[in-house]
Write a structure and sequence with these properties.
By secondary structure, the chain is mainly alpha-helical. The protein has one domain.
Length: about 80
């Protein structure tokens, strides 16, 4: 497992009223979302990075307007819908 440290100015924690734990969780979630969206890393790995189970991570994605469903076009979506 790789660990990465991020320096966050104390003023940011003060302004956002975040504890160190809150800031750590926020950073982990932000990194996990970015890996999912930009690099196609799996839901499972991203949930692990975020410190969540898959269901919680899917909710986090939804809260951030990110869908777990990816379709290239309307026909692909309709085919999946008909197969459901």
């Amino acid at each position: 497992m790789c660990q990465i440290a991020v320096d966050i100015p104390n003023e940011v924690l003060y302004d956002t009223k975040m504890s160190k734990g809150d800031a750590s969780a926020f950073a982990r979630q932000a990194v996990a979302i970015r890996y999912y969206v930009k690099n196609g890393v799996s839901l499972g790995y991203c949930a692990q990075i975020a410190g969540m189970d898959k269901e919680e991570f899917i909710r986090l994605l939804g809260d951030n307007g990110i869908s777990i469903f990816h379709f290239d076009d309307k026909n692909e979506f309709m085919e999946e819908l008909n197969n459901a």
